Amino acid sequence: MENQASSKNIILNYGVYLGIASVLLNLVNYAIGDFLKPHWSISILSGVLMIVIIVMAFKKFKEINEGFMSWGQAVKIGVGLTMISAVIGIVYQQLFQNFIEPEFMQQMMMVQEQAWVDGGMSSDQIEGAKEMMQKFQGPLISSAIGLVVAAFIGFVVSAITGAIMKQSAEEQY
Question: For 39-70, b where at least 16 C-beta lie within 10 A, e where not — what string?
Fold first, then answer.
């Protein structure tokens, strides 16, 4: 039971760390005026940040668990903290879209529409794509998609890093 309590604290703490770090990264991106078409390096930095925080959480868990961590525990911790971070990110995104930058979705639609035109899409194709895009813009559907994507990415990163960092009592002897 002690391991369960400690993993919950690690999930919560490191999930909050990742969520706050992600929000700060988004705010910096907004402050420099690059929020509509972010540079590719922002995505790389975000991914590295996620990996680093997950690895830190795994190390902390192993520290309080006498150096041991199973693959399943790693996945649970990684997906859990990623989901906490995703909830923080979703709250931030809703605040951003509704209060900080209420025209954000219209601006994004214009940027995307120009990309479609530059890509050679016909006006009928663009209209169809806009209709489809608008179906996914509501707060509930975009939040649900955000949670599913976060869970998937959290699982993949946790499964890989957990496989590398796992340490069981059987492996010790």
Answer: eeebeeebeebbeebbbebbebbbeebeebbe
